[in-house]
Amino acid sequence: MDIEAVISEVLQRTRPSEEERAFVEELMEELEGIANKTIEELGLEVKPHFVGSLAKDTYLAGDHDVDLFLAFPLETPLEELRKRGLELGKAIAERLDSYEIAYAEHPYVRAKYRGVSVDLVPCYDVKDWKDVRTAVDRSILHTRWVNENLRGRNDEVRLLKRFLKGINAYGSEVYVRGFSGYLAEILVIKYGSFLGVLKKADLILKQKIIDPADWLRKEPEVARKTVEREINEDKPLVVIDPVDPRRNVSANLSWERYGIFYFKSGEFLEKPSIEFFFPAEKPWKNYLEVLRERKTALLTLVFEVPEMVDDLLLPQLERSAKGLEKALEREGFRVLGWNVGKTEKAFIMLELDRAERERIKLKPGPEFFTQRGRRFYEKNEKVWIVGKRLCSEKRVKENVLDVVIELLEKGQVSLGRGIREAVKGADVLLNYVPKDVEREAYLFLSREKWNLKD
After folding, report:
1. How far is CA 342 from CA 63, 179, 433, in A?
2. SS3 277
3. Given 3-state DSSP classes, what are the helix, strand and coil percentages for the chain, each rounded to the nearest 5?
4. What is the spatial distance between Cα 436 and Cα 434, in angstroms, rounded to a whole number?
5. pTM of the model
6. In this structure, are residues 126 and 141 in contact, taking their beta carbons and an 8 Å threshold?
7. CATH code at position 250
8. What residues pair up with 209 in beta bridges, in sequence order?
9. What's the DSSP call for residue 283?
10. Fewest beta carbons within 10 Å, which of 51, 266, 305, 307?
11. Is residue 190 domain-shared with residue 117, that is, in the same domain?
12. pLDDT grade, residue 354 (50/70/90)?
């Protein structure tokens, strides 16, 4: 298929049908009516705003999640906004099908209505970036900016979003660290089309800084601070938020996810295929077969998930994996890679070059005639002299399981603060994982988890 034929077919599967559009419009109308009626009954000065892809008409077929923001006046104290916002969200949700309380910067209500997920989020009614007080306040400004600047290129955004989903690079959540929907919209606005963005994959990376609203000229001091901060943190891109010069829209985008986009863009332009947008699910083999082929060892720590949201849990798992990697490499094992995640329990996996190490380890010591030399002589059993320096040896535990358990018991591993005790009490497994983690183990060991090249 040529590129136009591929794009045409993808759009047929991605663009909402007229029936779907009618359903979404009716749904939003009903929700707005329910919200306004509840606000009036409670005597609140709150404005409901739809934000996100539904409000911008950049949603994909079959993806109808609703974000309804409840904008309080700027003079409302933050604690009152949190309290009243939650009360209002619950009062609206009680008129819907079901709901639960969710937590981000402050509590909000996640409801269900007519089979659709509806987030009811309190925020401030901001008109300008200087009014922003909470992380969610910008969403109203984002929606307004996109609607003012997209100019009929909604389908181009749909193509880019579907492409990013297909190559596993979509979503700014901490467990993905890919492109957000808002970033996809900005790139289409900046480069004109889906193909325009793909053709600029190399230039975007080299250019590094994207400033759609010209903040570096309008607010140079603030915007420069944003650029310097993000470059110092070695972010792949700095996309200065068109509605707030203090924020990098691509702050959560990782080098790995941009790398996937970088290569897949070139491959698609060279050899277009529906597979980039709708990849066939690959069969996965038994992870033990991969382990035998690789002749390596798989160390897995499994433990109860502490009560915390994914945005907090995942970074702590990663920090703990890096701590284990450093500790094991100090002990003579080579770590070939690590993987973290959560199924029924949290897990940390490390692939090692081997499961056992040498039994005897040489200990070079200080000069024999020094104070340190005397202490070294007294402390060690087998001691000899090479030149003027003392040497000794010690018997080391062979198996990596014993090594890890001892490292954890002695507190010699840098672990995420919030999960330290949970990791210390983990089940430590060698070349075996629980059933619910088997697919994850296969994807990790085969490197298919990163979906870069077959």
Report:
1. 25, 22, 13
2. coil
3. 50, 20, 30
4. 6
5. 0.87
6. yes
7. 1.10.1410.30
8. 238
9. P
10. 307
11. no
12. very high
Q: Reduce the DSSP state of residue 170 to 3 states and report it.
A: strand
Q: Is 337 exposed, middle or buried (0-12, 13-18, 19+ CB in 10 A)?
A: middle
- For residues 157 and 255, state if they share a domain: yes
Distance, CA of 88 to CA of 93 (rounded, Å): 8
pLDDT in tens, 174-211: 888 999 999 999 999 999 999 999 999 999 999 999 99
For the chain, counts of helices (H) and of strands (E): 18, 14
* Residue pointed to by tokens 């100090």: 330
Same domain for 389 and 406, yes or no, is no
HEC secondary structure over 310-375: HHHHHHHHHHHHHHHHHHHHHCCCCEEEEEEEECCCEEEEEEECCCECCCEEEEEEEECCCHHHHH
Q: What DSSP string runs through 47-112?
A: EEEEEHHHHHT-PPTT---EEEEEEE-TTS-HHHHHHHHHHHHHHHHTTSSEEEEEESSSEEEEEE
- CA distances from residue 259 to 24, 169, 288, 444, 446 in whole angstroms, order as listed: 35, 9, 29, 18, 19
The DSSP bridge partners found for residue 97 are none
**Residue 365: inside a domain:** yes
Amino acid making up residue 289: E
Compute the half-sphere exposure of residue 202: CA atoms within 13 Å on the CB side of its CA: 5
Considering its fold, how many domains does the chain have in total?
4
Listed residues 276, 309, 335: the one ending a domain: 276
* Co-location of 99 and 173 in the same domain: no
Residues whose CB is less than 8 angstroms from the CB of residue 365 and which lie 6 or more positions away in sequence, other chains included: 372, 373, 376, 380, 383, 389, 390, 391, 392
Contacts of 10 (CB under 8 A, 6+ apart): 159, 162, 274, 277, 278
Pair (31, 123) in one structural domain: yes
297 and 350 share one domain = yes
In this structure, are residues 124 and 71 in contact, taking their beta carbons and an 8 Å threshold? yes
Q: State how far the Cα of 120 lies from the Cα of 107, in Å rounded to an integer.
A: 10
Per-residue pLDDT of 411-447, as tens digits, reads 999 999 999 999 999 999 999 999 999 999 999 999 8
Cα separation, 175 vs 435, in Å, equals 21
Q: How many residues does the chain have?
A: 454
CA end-to-end distance (rounded Å), the chain: 21
Domain of 272 in residue numbering reads as: 150-276
- Please say whether the beta carbons of 120 and 112 come within 8 A: no
